[in-house]
Inverse folding.
């Protein structure tokens, strides 16, 4: 390549053309085609609080606060967020940011966004929960917001990462928009969710702009050349939903797409062998087994036989069931090494977790001894419920657990069903033991503790997924206190304490954290994200 | 003719009503959509609010009555997931599926009829035997495996054609079609072929059997005696006879290709209504599932009627009115 070449006329011509191209503008950015495993249900950033929707909206509608691949909060449209007192937050906005339609971004857009979220019609899963705690939102100047909440809310900044900011002007708001609890002023007629498929309505400040939204087929984004963080790496990003894993891998191998998310574990060697890059990283999703521990009057645990009362109420039995499981074997043989054994509910270093939190060791002999101590020397019979199409290899994991439990004398059967049926039955307490997963969207431990371990109390919004109905007042007290503690250090200490206390009581059986793989074509690689989102912004061009 | 049409219409209405009841109750029995729709951390109040908004808090008979009443007014409900009329969600996806189904149908007929005729005229020849052996293969290969193999060979290994998706589309008369762009056609080849192979085998077998039977009949002998050219005998008289069973079967198969191309659409990530149905079942998007199945019922009824009409046009012995002797 470096050898001097005899100068010919064609070479000169080529050099001229090349030179002209360089002079005529920036080098054309390359394009990116992505194969997604699930499709967003709407382009409206506030319609459906669902992973694929949240990932897609980050390209177009930035939030005040962003999250890095490890789910740490990073400044986006807000430069800083500081608690003034226990219930007041001051948020300073980034100056000189413009929306894709050229209008400047100010506090009015933020107020408009907060006001519009509860107005979204027929939202299947609303973002309004994040706005509801706000008592007042004031704008002393166009680049400052003061948000007051009724109770101390340390997670306010985390909640803000979920909300994409709309342009007040493009949405048809009045000149002044005023936040009022129970109905804002100056809202005009907010656009409907379906209107956002139109690029003229989908106006955000993000690194990409919407070019085309064809549901079921593709979403096409173009790079935003005036993005405050600099023009993005790709000129055009095309995202195609390919929900079945086989065809998704085939699309990558055939060169139809440059990046796919969650290829099946068994396909990884083949993808690597074909010269593609696989990157993988820990997720915030834990796979666990809930054990029915309800002891209300008249309740008979549904799927245990051979025991006169519910053996799972005995801590020794729960410990035995946990010690009977060889987590390493499950990770290596069932998960193909693509998972990490879990000791607590979130992997280190997410907020509230402890480095080297001990994983319950595999000890079948001790497990048998514990069962005998608890009065079950001959074990009992139990049925383990599991979905069969929701988590990576969910039913296979359940089968492995069933074998391991049977080995210590707890004869275990499997009841596997499709996700939609499984969750309905689970919510009706149809299982004495069930396998499921939980992804902590907020990326910090209070979310996991609250959903899986706190006493089930839907009215207070506590323990909402705790269908094992474990209940420990002290764990509740510590966690609820943490959820009202503004100081990060004190909050993290409380969460660590709550987690250690809870896990020592075997409230549930943690199995492993899912590891998410991505596969990319030559010249690209993907920075794995804890939240499992696939973002064009995290694609690295080598 | 008119009496016949009225009778058919009456039968159709009964079928649709029975189907509506079955589908609605069946889908109702699967599971509670709120468990899939609501965020897992939704409070009891939020869940109740969603149930009330979607009308899921009312008893089944009331829900069905509301659905039936609205359906009579042409409203099959709004998708829970997309918040758009269910029929609209389906119709957006329909062109992709129709494109696929009609292309597959065209391949099956255009390739299958001549091959079947040939095999019927020369049943003992090497070429005739090869065609029949090939048709057995087309019959017996599982659709999904065959699709994966097509992808593996033509997309992954040879790299001639894309592995999936629909390709570039253009808007003609308000409908997105990929039939008019090179990229769209390239994307269409493999899925259409995959969908067509089974029907192709069916057409070959029907055409062959029909030809063999027809060649022995008196009218062929008579035509020969009359001195008609072999090409006219085969091309007009025999072809017309063998078309009858082919049209019946193809009509039914067209319906199933449109309504249940699920496997092909999944393997080739084809954004048609089959994929929509699967997604909707998984998400418990009840209105879309019900509307889809109702539309499917109507589709089959229409296709059957059209087949009967074509039948009458092709075979003068068939009379559509039952009052004649």
């Amino acid at each position: 390549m470096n050898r001097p070449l005899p100068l010919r006329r064609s070479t000169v011509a080529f050099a001229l053309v090349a030179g002209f191209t360089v002079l005529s503008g920036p080098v054309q950015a390359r394009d990116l085609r992505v194969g997604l495993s699930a499709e967003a249900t709407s382009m409206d950033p506030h319609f459906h609080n669902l992973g694929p929707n949240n990932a897609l909206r980050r390209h177009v509608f930035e939030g005040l606060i962003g999250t890095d691949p490890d789910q740490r909060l990073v400044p986006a449209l807000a430069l800083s967020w500081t608690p003034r007192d226990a219930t007041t937050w001051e948020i300073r906005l980034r100056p000189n940011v413009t929306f894709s339609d050229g209008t400047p971004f100010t506090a009015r857009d933020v107020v408009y966004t907060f006001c519009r979220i509860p107005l979204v019609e027929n939202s299947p899963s609303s973002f309004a929960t994040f706005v509801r705690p706000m008592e007042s939102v004031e704008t002393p100047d166009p680049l400052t917001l003061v948000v007051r909440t009724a109770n101390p809310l340390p997670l306010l900044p985390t909640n803000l990462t979920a909300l994409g900011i709309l342009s007040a002007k493009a949405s048809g708001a009045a000149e002044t928009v005023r936040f009022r609890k129970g109905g804002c002023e100056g809202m005009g007629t907010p656009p409907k969710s379906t209107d956002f498929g139109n690029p003229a309505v989908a106006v955000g400040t993000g690194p990409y702009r919407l070019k085309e939204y064809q549901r079921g087929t593709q979403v096409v984004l173009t790079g935003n050349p005036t993005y405050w963080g600099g023009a993005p790496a790709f000129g055009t990003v095309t995202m195609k939903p390919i929900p079945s894993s086989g065809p998704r891998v085939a699309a990558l191998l055939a060169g139809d797409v440059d990046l796919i998310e969650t290829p099946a574990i068994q396909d990884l060697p083949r993808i690597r062998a074909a010269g593609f890059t696989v990157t993988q990283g820990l997720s915030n999703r834990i796979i666990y087994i809930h054990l029915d521990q309800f002891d209300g009057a008249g309740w008979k645990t549904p799927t245990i036989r051979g025991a006169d009362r519910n053996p799972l109420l005995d801590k020794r039995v729960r410990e035995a069931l946990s010690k009977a499981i060889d987590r390493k074997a499950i990770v290596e043989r069932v998960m193909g090494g693509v998972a990490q054994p879990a000791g607590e509910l979130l992997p280190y270093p997410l907020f509230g977790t402890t480095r080297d939190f001990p994983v319950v060791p595999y000890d079948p002999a001790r497990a048998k001894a514990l069962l005998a101590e608890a009065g079950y020397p001959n074990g009992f019979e139990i049925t383990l419920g599991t979905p069969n199409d929701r988590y990576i290899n969910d039913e296979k994991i359940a089968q492995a657990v069933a074998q391991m439990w049977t080995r210590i004398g707890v004869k275990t059967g499997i009841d596997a069903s499709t996700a939609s049926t499984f969750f309905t039955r689970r919510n009706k307490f149809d299982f004495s033991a069930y396998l499921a997963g939980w992804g902590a969207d907020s990326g910090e431990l209070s979310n996991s503790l609250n959903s899986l371990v706190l006493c089930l109390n839907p009215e207070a919004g506590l323990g909402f997924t705790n269908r094992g109905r474990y209940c420990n007042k002290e764990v509740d007290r510590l966690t609820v206190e943490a959820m009202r503690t503004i100081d990060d250090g004190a909050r993290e200490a409380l969460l660590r304490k709550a987690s250690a206390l809870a896990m020592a009581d075997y409230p549930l059986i943690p199995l492993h954290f899912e590891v998410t793989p991505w596969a990319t074509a030559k010249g690209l690689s993907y920075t794995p994200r804890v939240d499992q989102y696939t973002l064009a912004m995290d694609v690295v061009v080598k | 003719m008119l009496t016949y049409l009225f009778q058919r219409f009456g039968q159709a209405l009964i079928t649709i009503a029975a189907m509506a009841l079955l589908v609605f109750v069946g889908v109702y029995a699967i599971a509670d959509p709120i468990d899939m729709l609501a965020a897992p951390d939704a409070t009891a109040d939020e869940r109740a609010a969603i149930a009330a908004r979607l009308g899921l808090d009312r008893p089944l008979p009331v829900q069905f009555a509301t659905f039936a009443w609205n359906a009579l007014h042409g409203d099959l409900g709004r998708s829970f997931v997309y918040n758009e009329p269910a029929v609209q969600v389906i119709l957006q996806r329909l062109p992709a599926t129709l494109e696929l189904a009609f292309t597959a149908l065209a391949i099956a007929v255009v390739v299958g009829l001549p091959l079947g005729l040939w095999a019927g005229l020369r049943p003992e020849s090497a070429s005739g035997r090869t065609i029949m052996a090939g048709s057995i293969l087309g019959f017996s290969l599982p659709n999904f495996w065959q699709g994966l193999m097509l992808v593996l060979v033509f997309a992954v290994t040879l790299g001639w054609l894309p592995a999936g998706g629909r390709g570039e589309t253009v808007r003609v008369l308000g409908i997105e079609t990929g039939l008019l762009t090179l990229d769209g056609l390239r994307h269409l080849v493999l899925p259409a072929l995959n969908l067509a192979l089974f029907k192709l085998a069916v057409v070959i077998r029907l055409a062959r059997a029909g030809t063999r039977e027809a060649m022995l009949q008196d009218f062929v002998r008579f035509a020969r005696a009359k001195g008609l050219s072999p090409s006219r005998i085969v091309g007009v008289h025999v072809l017309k006879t063998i078309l009858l069973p082919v049209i019946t079967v193809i009509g039914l198969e067209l319906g199933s290709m449109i309504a249940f191309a699920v496997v092909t659409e999944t393997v080739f990530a084809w954004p048609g209504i089959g994929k929509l149905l699967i997604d909707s079942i998984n998400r418990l998007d009840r209105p879309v599932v019900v509307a889809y199945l109702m539309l499917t019922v109507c589709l089959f009824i229409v296709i059957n009627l059209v087949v009967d009409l074509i039948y009458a046009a092709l075979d003068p012995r068939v009379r559509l009115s039952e009052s004649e002797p």
In short: Chain A touches chain B through 52 residues (CB under 8 Å). Chain A is about 25% helix and 25% strand. The mean pLDDT of chain A is 90. The longest strand of chain A covers residues 277-291.
